[in-house]
Amino acid sequence: MATKEVGQEGFRWFIGVVEDRDDPEKQGRVRVRIYNVHGDIVETPKKDLPWAVTLMPGFSSSLKQVGVSATGLQIGSTVVGFFMDGNDAFMPVIFGIMPGKNDMPKLAVGQNNIIKQQLGPEPASAYNAQYPFNKVTQTESGHVIEVDDTPNFERLHTLHTSGTYSEIDHTGRRVNKIVGDDYEIVQKNQEVYIKGNVNIKVDGNYTLNVTGNIVVNGKTINMNRGTQGAARIGDTADTGDAGTGSHYDTNSAGTNVIETGSGTVFIGD
Q1: What does residue 135 show for φ and ψ, rounded to 5 degrees?
Q2: CATH number of this structure's domain 106-177
Q3: What is residue 108's three-state secondary structure?
Q4: Of 122, 149, 215, 229, whose CA is between 20 and 30 Å from 244?
């Protein structure tokens, strides 16, 4: 260093481009080719570039595995920083990036480039963002987080690269879509209150396993309104075997009245 104490050797800042982020110590460091310092790859091979540390924002403690990981930079990112050792230029520190003309996520500039294949009653996207109100985080693989403050079209939107997403629009409507399997585990109790109506459609089979009791209360309960209707005590049953003898009904077909039922399954009054 030019002096014995950090900060006394003068402030030397730089602009450079990230060339390597595979930090062997996994501390979020990157190798940066700094303009007017390292020249081209012939003059300074990538392996000889110094590792640069990244300053983290104040809302991230970056202490004891708590905070935001310092792994956001990509190869090709243009960064701004300074040298802790001044003109010796061996200890670079990055304190920001310089996005280029086409580096902003399209979602942040009012262009919805996410194509969603609507399924069943799934509504269309509520995206109506206007620059500069939409704060977007987008990763290399395509994960997206949007915090959209566009007036009258405020939204929260999280999207997995597979297509699974959750979106809350300006009215408070929430849309959850899972393109794979879905598991919900509740270790204790669960209570659901729905003030309006509920519609559930299952294209496949539906299995309900309950180790305790099931209580269903309703003004009218219609079970299987197709060709196989549910019967209650007091309903008539068409047995189709009217006749005489111990193994025949004593009444005509369709006139038998159900007098007893299950002690555990109750349908209707």
Answers
A1: -90, 115
A2: 3.10.450.190
A3: helix
A4: 229
